Here is the input.
Amino acid sequence: MTWSIVARDPDTGHFGIAVASRFFAVGAAVPHMRGRIGAIATQAFVSPLYGTDGIALLSEGHSPDDIIAILTGRDDGAQQRQMHLIDAEGRNAAFTGAKCIDWAGHLVDDNVSVAGNMLAGPEVIAESLRVYKETSGAPLAERLLAAMGTGEAAGGDKRGRQSAALKIYRDQDYAWLDIRADDHTDPLGELRRLYAVAQERFLHVAETMPTRDNPHGLTDRRLIDEKITALEAARIAEGRPSPSFATPLKPA
Here is the structure.
């Protein structure tokens, strides 16, 4: 009932997952990640254990192919499930159970995979992958949003749309960005609006949060405020509207 993209930025090692569905709060069930470890999307007849146990297995050094074999091998319901994942080395793998509702399938490429079920057709994931690859060099969040928007334009979930989510982990156990539209008439458009709003203040503050390498973080509010003020002045000078009040963007 969903399609998603799981990616790793080879230049930074950051992980990202974007997902959309005609299902409530898809972001609460599908994406699982840990910085420096890996990213997993579990969908169709969702098993949260594919996410939680899969991340634990990645942290122990198991390969993505081995993890799929382990998780599906112990699960009598595996043929109704779908998952795809990537590890810190960029190794990835995907599984689509034979009983997932058509159209269902996956594509795996360097540092990225796209998978979906109950879709309008194979073009949904094919177009998502194409656009993700063609936007190489853009920020990871923007590539994921562009890919999902194009997938929706190709038909998306054949039942319609309701929720979407975008989650990015850098090198920590907490998300750098985690935004969701749980029940919306244009969930991917709402994600784009939220991502624009996040750039006003949130992502600048996120850069100052403590990390294992720097447990102090940055606590001088003046530096944060100066950067935000400069960016706001540039926005006004260029005549760009504030993202907080922008009309939600339409799918690409």
